[in-house]
Design a protein that fits this description.
With 489 residues, the chain is α/β, with parallel strands linked by helices. It contains 14 helices and 16 strands.
């Protein structure tokens, strides 16, 4: 972790002191190895005195700041208001709660404070200025309101695209490493929930659990670290937390039952649970800690790959749920025109089309590990033969692309002699056009390729069937003989 210049940590005088559990000198020594360019400063009455925070930031010429308070949970809005009055734009800002329970051991309080501070620094060190601009509102430089809204974890779910989620991924990676070091757990929690020092759970705060996907807790479990989801109690947040925990439990039971004990339920009572394994019941962690990714489908695929490496990867299993970050696409090959509309609609390139020349058939293939289950391919199909199931399973880790449709150009156009396919399967196309353009559908069915039909017959023209010289021919409204009429090449 590297921080840029003018990165400061402001600590309220209420929580630090040479005689207390959180010593500014000890904190500085613990953090300096991870963030040598960072400055730690104690500010008297930081949380209670109006103007103390802006004054300190201006005096230090800070560009990125971590604000540590003993009552940050209660004073969050006041802190944000103080940051809003700061006349110099911050590139990133984080608020860290260092409140502790009365019965907490001083050693645990200090170690957890260090872990939270390191993780907050990891987050702001990866937060570029452009990361704080929500999608659809990009400017050359964000406003202070946009910076503050996003940097204090109050962004909307739509803002968590690739650029703005980098800092959150860095924080998650740091928290998992710190939890392994302290034999603690990670609580993925709504920002409205408070988690005091001494609870042996390190917080990964998000605006709402509704933005959390299965890949988040499953990756943490794959690192041998206990994890739980804590909601604020609001119905959408709480419901998603319960449903997602149940889904992840099903996945772990099917793929890695020995790791399922690391996934715990939520609720305020969960904070009193000690995540440390019982003597003789340790769970083996991954030898080398990996960085955490929170973007799907990569997050779930990485978690499944790590869990499968534990010895049950060869077992066939499947869990279907609306919460699955992955999907399985199926196509009715007998009714597919191989037009490629589903491929064009796929945002992750899980679907691909290849071939279609004289020597190679058209193939539509599917890569399970790339499918996010978004369903964009289903409405894009003009034949309505694409289906999607939201599920994860052993097939999700298939190393190669799976063939869904294959159409071989084994016939040739009676007019031009080229392969009849011309990148489209003729029967579905003719069936689709039978109602609106029966003559075009007839010509396709008789053995003419789509290129010849479209080159000579306007789809909007009404053609007259005549009987001339004993043969059926087509004439356009102008009276001219259609070049594709009857048996005329």
């Amino acid at each position: 972790m590297q921080t840029t210049g003018n990165t400061v940590v402001l600590m309220c005088s209420d929580v630090v002191g040479e005689d207390g559990p959180i010593s500014i000198g000890a904190i500085s020594r613990a953090v300096s190895g991870r963030a040598p360019a960072c400055r730690l400063v104690t500010v008297r009455d930081l949380c209670s005195r109006r103007g103390a925070l802006p004054e300190a930031l201006l005096a230090l010429q800070a560009r990125r700041a971590v604000v540590c308070c003993g009552n940050a949970a209660r004073s969050r809005e006041e802190i944000r208001a103080s940051l809003a009055r700061f006349t110099v734009r911050l590139e990133a800002a984080e608020i860290v709660d260092l409140s502790s329970t009365a019965e907490a051991e001083p050693g645990e309080v200090f170690e957890q404070a260090v872990a939270r501070l390191r993780s907050a620094l990891a987050r702001i060190s990866c937060s570029e200025t452009a990361a704080f601009v929500p999608r659809g509102r990009r400017t050359s430089r964000p406003s202070r309101r946009q910076v503050l809204a996003l940097s204090t974890r109050d962004w909307a779910a739509e803002a968590t695209e690739s650029c703005s989620i980098v800092g959150l991924e860095a924080e998650a990676t740091s928290l998992v490493a710190e939890a392994s070091r302290l034999a603690a757990g990670v609580a993925v929690m709504c920002s409205k929930v408070t988690l005091p020092l001494g609870s042996r759970w390190l917080p990964l705060q998000v605006p709402s659990l509704e933005m959390v996907t299965a890949g988040w807790p499953l990756q943490i479990v794959s690192e041998g670290v206990p994890v739980r989801l804590l909601s604020c109690g609001d119905e959408p947040c709480a419901h998603h937390g319960v449903e997602l925990t149940a889904f992840c439990a099903q996945v772990l039971e099917a793929l890695a039952p020995e790791q399922s004990r690391l996934l715990l339920g939520g609720g305020e009572s969960a904070l009193t649970h000690d995540p440390r394994p019982a003597p003789g019941d340790a769970v083996s962690a991954v030898a080398t800690a990996r960085s955490i990714t929170l973007r799907e489908p990569q997050a779930t695929i990485r978690a499944l790959s790590a869990l499968a490496s534990g010895g049950r990867g060869e077992i066939s299993w499947q869990v279907e749920s609306a919460l699955s970050p992955l999907g399985e696409v199926r196509i009715d090959a007998s009714a597919c025109s191989a037009c490629g509309c589903c491929v064009s609609a796929c945002p992750t390139s899980a679907l691909a089309i290849e071939g279609g020349d004289e020597d190679h058939p058209v193939r539509i293939t599917f890569e399970p590990a790339s499918c996010s289950g978004c369903g964009a391919c289903v409405p894009a199909c003009p034949e309505g033969v694409v289906a999607l199931r939201q599920l994860v399973g052993s097939a999700s880790l298939a190393p190669a692309r799976l063939p869904l449709v294959e159409v071989t150009p084994d016939e040739r156009c009676i007019s031009c002699g080229r392969p009849l396919l011309a990148r489209l399967s003729i029967a579905p196309v003719a069936g689709r056009l039978a109602g609106s353009h029966p003559e075009v559908a007839r010509l396709l069915s008789e053995g003419r390729c789509a290129d010849c039909v479209l080159a000579g017959v306007p789809l909007t023209a009404s053609m007259t069937r005549l009987h001339e010289g004993g043969a059926d021919v087509n004439r356009l409204p102008s009276g001219d003989l259609c070049p594709l009429a009857g048996g005329v090449p």
